[in-house]
Write a structure and sequence with these properties.
Chain lengths: ~260, ~260
């Protein structure tokens, strides 16, 4: 091939590629700014998998902000319900269990008007919500159960969430077990603090006496043995700043997929 | 050959008269730059999806039909491989290390990249004429005689001649169309049908497949079909001439021996 033609072609290519690259970079910058503004960037967006994670979270947040998880008929409830392995129970847990969980407390603080400490009886005195939904594990197995609990939004109403709140961080009695969700999930009508399952008390094997239930996210976001909630506008203040214990072990913060 | 000449013509006219004697092949590659780039991005993503998909299966190598399935229910079938979870009754005395964290991250990141790349590719298929020219069966291929002779060539493992390096034969065209318009859409659909958040907005994606576990089982089989395509595709590249076919997909030109012969 002649040098002349290749130079001519490559100059034209260079200009058009340069223009396209500039447009792309400007577009990405604008997109990143808008995503940050509308809360479409997950806390674990840094690192080599940040691109995929951000695309998944942002697109699912846009598509599913108000959508309801599928609910099933009572004939579809899995019998018997499968309970995954749990860590050995702590002494403190065993002490509370011996007392019939009468001393179990859910403390709520952070960006709330009235920091509170609620007993199970108090939680059960609020209007309950019952749902028959699927619990899906990231490993691939699943089951359907009937869950009874108080909508998290109700508890947040009781304590008075401040308008600048962006996330709810929830902690388990199990050591180093905590997670968080954005306000779209926290205020979602199917997000429950569950205390009942299949017509009975929530068994310890399933996270009783109190488990976070998010039917639109995978099993590991449904943290067992909930004792504490903190409402915040900044997840960087917690742990390594990745929004949950799971990303510190290599698992994504957002588990809607 | 006449067809190639005419394809090269518009490009040739944009070249100054002094160099118009340069053969058209030097500016008309066997595979356009766009096809080459999207091909190799897809290859990379497919390998990542394959490896991470296998890793994810290892954590629960059991498959079910319907909505739910777990260790307490009867599987449709199971793979007799060791597992990365101690609860799985795999029949092996050891448990493999858990690789699901990065496997899930990489699986979805590769999925995003390959879906976006595939979208650009399909759009360009329609606008560039690549679909009509290179992928739809040629009119001449549609006669019974052409069809049976093509079958005979494949059965006899007849090596393609040099001219055939410049176009796809009937079975190549059908295989590529099937992968692009059937297998890829199916693997995306069955993948999305496993996402609890996605199906909350679009429940029909999973109910039409018979349930979430059915979607997982179908995702596995469609992936196997794609793997089968990959194996045959690579075998055919070796059979037709590894160097010339690889050179064509990397540089755009099959090589000096087959050029304009």
């Amino acid at each position: 091939m002649s040098d002349l033609s290749s130079r001519k072609l490559s100059r034209r290519k260079l200009i058009s590629t340069g223009l396209a690259a500039t447009a792309g970079a400007v577009g990405l910058g604008v997109a990143a700014h808008l995503a940050q503004k509308y809360g479409l960037v997950p806390p674990d967006h840094r690192g080599i998998y940040g691109l995929g994670e951000t695309l998944t979270y942002a697109s699912q947040r846009l598509l599913t902000r108000h959508s309801l998880a599928r609910e099933f008929s009572s004939s579809q409830i899995s019998k018997p319900p499968f309970a995954n392995q749990i860590e050995p129970l702590t002494d403190e847990f065993k002490r509370l269990q011996a007392g019939g969980f009468a001393e179990w407390r859910l403390s709520v603080n952070g960006m709330v008007a009235r920091p509170s400490s609620l007993s199970l009886d108090q939680l059960k005195s609020y209007p309950s919500h019952t749902q028959i939904t699927m619990l899906q594990c990231e490993e691939g197995w699943s089951y359907i159960a009937e869950w009874v609990g108080v909508p998290l939004s109700r508890v947040l109403d009781v304590v008075g969430v401040l308008p600048q709140a962006r996330y709810v961080v929830y902690f388990s009695m199990e050591p180093d077990t905590w997670d968080s969700i954005d306000m779209a999930d926290a205020l979602h009508p199917q997000t429950l603090l569950t205390y009942g399952m299949n017509g009975d008390q929530l068994p310890v094997g399933h996270g009783g006496p109190l488990r976070m239930r998010l039917p639109r996210q995978l099993g590991y976001k449904n943290v067992k043995f909930i004792t504490h909630l903190t409402v915040t506008d900044d997840l960087k203040k917690f742990g390594k700043g990745l929004g949950a214990a799971a990303p510190e072990f290599g698992y994504a913060w957002y588990a809607g997929i | 050959m006449a067809e190639l000449e005419s394809v090269g013509a518009p490009l040739a006219t944009s070249i100054p008269a002094s160099v118009s004697s340069v053969p058209a092949t030097t500016v008309t590659p066997r595979h356009s730059l766009f096809v080459r780039v999207t091909h190799w991005i897809t290859t990379l993503c497919f390998f990542a999806l394959l490896v991470t998909g296998a890793e994810l299966i290892i954590s629960h190598p059991r498959f079910y039909w319907g909505e739910t399935g777990n260790h307490l229910t009867t599987p449709l079938f199971k793979l007799h491989i060791p597992s990365s979870r101690s609860l799985v009754p795999s029949g092996y005395s050891y448990v493999l290390p858990d690789q699901n964290g990065w496997s899930r991250y990489l699986h979805f990141q590769s999925a995003w990249i390959v879906v976006l790349t595939g979208l650009l590719y399909v759009i360009s298929l329609f606008f560039s004429g690549h679909l009509r020219k290179n992928l739809f069966p040629r009119r001449a291929d549609l006669s019974w005689r052409a069809f049976s002779s093509s079958i005979a060539d494949h059965l006899r493992f007849k090596r393609p001649n040099a001219a055939e390096a410049w176009s796809y034969n009937l079975f190549q065209r059908l295989a590529y169309l099937f992968v692009i318009f059937v297998l890829f859409p199916l693997v995306i659909w069955t993948g999305l049908a496993m996402s609890p958040a996605f199906v909350s907005a679009f429940p029909l994606t999973v109910t039409s497949l018979g349930g979430q576990q059915s979607a997982r089982t179908l995702h596995f089989f469609v992936s196997l079909a794609l793997l089968l395509f990959l194996l045959v595709h690579v075998a055919m590249v070796f059979f037709a001439g590894f160097t010339s076919r690889m050179r064509a997909m990397i540089t755009g030109r099959p090589g000096t021996s087959t050029e304009r012969t």
